[in-house]
Amino acid sequence: MDRSSATATQTSDRPAAPLENSSVKPEVSPRSMRLMIAGWAIQALRYLPKLATLVVLVAIWQFTSTVWLPRIDPYRAVLMPAPSVVAKTAGLMIVSGELGYHLLASLKREGVAFLFALAAVPLGLFMGWFRLIHAQLDPVIEVLRPIPPLAWIPLSILWFGIGDEQNEFIIFLGMVFPILINTIDGVRKVERNLVRAARSLGASEYSVLTRVVLQAALPQIVTGIRIGLGVGWMALVAAELVGASSGLGFLINDARSVLRTDIIVVGMLTIGIVGLSIDLALRDTARRLLPWSAQQSE
Amino acid sequence: MGHLAVKSVTKMYGNPASDNTVVALQDVTLEIEHNSFCAILGHSGCGKTTLLNMAAGFEQPTSGQITIDGRAITKPGWQNTIIFQEYALFPWLTVAQNIGFGLEMKSLPSHKRAEAIRLHVDLVGLQGFEGRFPHQLSGGMRQRVAIARALAVRPEVLLMDEPFAALDAQNRSAMQDELVRIWQREPKTVMLVTHSIDEAIKLADQVIVMTRRPGRVKAIIDISLPRPRDEDDARYLSLKKQLRGLVHDEF
Ligand SMILES: Nc1ncnc2c1ncn2[C@@H]1O[C@H](COP(=O)(O)OP(=O)(O)O)[C@@H](O)[C@H]1O
Ligand SMILES: [Mg+2]
Q1: Which of A43, A153, B18, B137 has the smallest C-beta neighbourhood within 10 Å, fewest atoms?
Q2: ipTM of the assembly?
Q3: Is B153 on the interface with A (CB under 8 A)?
Q4: Whole-prediction pTM value?
């Protein structure tokens, strides 16, 4: 997982370099303008081989939906909206604010659940550091962890009713275990000599925990947060399918009842793109805030 | 002050009731005078690290006692700070922040801290690298940071566990010269562990040769040659021969 992410960012970093070179020129003459545009064109061409499969697939999809399916079975054509139709619907939904409304509702739930799930960081720190706390809490967690968040939906609806709290609870359950497990593991893997060095420089036990153990475990805590946000995002959509009146999960389920497959596809793509964006943003932040760990893992 | 005394220290690992106990050190007694440089020389596995770990307060002797100026060492602290072979720098802190870590732990006011950091950066010759992170430095430079970080807390005793063993031969020799220079500028009670005869002769006032496991004190050799020590000097060569004989015996 980490390896594939590393290569993905490498490739996205690469096109930036030549652009920077051409834009540091002091004056923008027509010649340098032309050079710049040529540079962009070359970059775009360089991307083309990578996106070739995607482009071909979209083209086949378009052909199937608009030419082939209508010819053999017009009813089935409805089930497979063409990319052009999806794009148009997406445009309309963005302009009307409908997409933004549902997206914001989902993001808000993800955010609230995340704030609660962050409690797993101090909990994991204590569990990783103090054997006694680990011995007591580990059995509880080992039993709860394998229960899929979705299995909590029926009970949570009875507890919270339908709405934000219930959704947030399900998302929280999806997030909390990856964060907790990774924090515990990160704390346990802290190099013993770092802790000894700190004590030998006069650090109190509190300082050892906050200034050394937490810091040293931070890269893995961030990994846990990344996984947690991803799992939470999946749980979110499922929770909204069943128990919400807004959000992307609600949007696609609602569209199903009126057979608006184009809206369903727009919703699905939004879920995918936003999930990816959250992960990329987090990875980028981690890279900037923890430069020393990026170096180590490479 | 910093008078280190090891009094009949024995260290056993494992359950004493069972058969699989390891006697790492047996009845070790030695003394290091204030501001004197002592090298512990022995084969790997003879208990050198064990001795240092107890002097640093990470472990307690099974019997016997280690004291600084008469006070028994009960826990780790800046008074008896240690430098590890693998540097153990905090990778998320810059060079300056690493050097300042112990000072912060001592709650030194920030202007005094900055002054002490500058002083120790100068001492180990790392001017211009204050803002670098450890992963951006070579092995030799990392060990300089570790030395500066340890000296900055003004320890009574400085402990070093094969500090240059991870460096290549050239860097190791350069760092040994560097350590002599630093120690002459800032005298300290030092207990340095090594398995290199040359390192011991180049650095120490007093070399303690250990036996193989269980580690016991085999010989105590005083070295009064002036520093920096010339490897081609006749007295250096005869010392080397003497120590090689003592260490070699152990095969
Ligand atoms: N925590 C431990 N538990 C059991 N045996 C140990 C432990 N630490 C060291 N030993 C044993 O004690 C002996 C001395 O080890 P050490 O002090 O590391 O030697 P040196 O540093 O001279 O190479 C070795 O035989 C080693 O296996
Ligand atoms: Mg050792």
Answers
A1: B18
A2: 0.93
A3: yes
A4: 0.84
